[in-house]
Amino acid sequence: MGERDLHTVLVDLDGTVLQREVTVAQGTAPEPVLAAATASIARLVRQAPRPQVLGIGFAAPGLVDIESGVVHTAVGYDW
């Protein structure tokens, strides 16, 4: 797993993996990381067997304020 690897996984309600994708962001600042994540999510949503997405989760390595959802420090990223 590389420093800028983004892992996107599409699962069903039972947690069964339906699709998986690994992409690399073109930088470590928030903008290229979010652009790569958004594009990856969009590709997997288009492949979803049903046209309904119930939720999206995001994990970042480092310090995340659970209540606000703000990533304060992400290891390996310029955040």
Can you put this structure into words, describing what you see?
This protein is α+β, with helices and mostly antiparallel strands and 79 residues long. Helix content is 23%, strand content 30%. It has 1 helix and 4 strands, in the order E-E-H-E-E. The strands form 2 sheets. The chain has a two-stranded antiparallel ribbon. A two-stranded antiparallel sheet has the order 3-4. The two termini are 20 Å apart. The model has no long low-confidence stretch (mean pLDDT 83).
Q: Would you summarize the structure shown here?
A:
This protein is an alpha+beta fold. The protein has 1 helix and 4 strands.
Helix and strand topology:
Elements: E1 5-11, E2 17-24, H1 30-47, E3 62-65, E4 70-74
Antiparallel strand pairs: 1-2, 3-4
How helix-rich are the residues, as a percent range? 10-25%
| Structural class by SSE content | alpha+beta
Poorly predicted regions are: none
Mean pLDDT level = 83
Strand content: 25-35%
Give the number of helices.
1
Rounded to the nearest angstrom, the radius of gyration is: 13 Å
Specify the biggest β-sheet: 2 strands, antiparallel
- C-alpha end-to-end distance: 20 Å
**Total E-strand runs:** 4
Order of helices and strands: EEHEE
Oligomeric form of this entry? single chain
Q: Given the C-alpha coordinates, what overall shape results?
A: globular
Strand order in space, largest sheet: 1-2
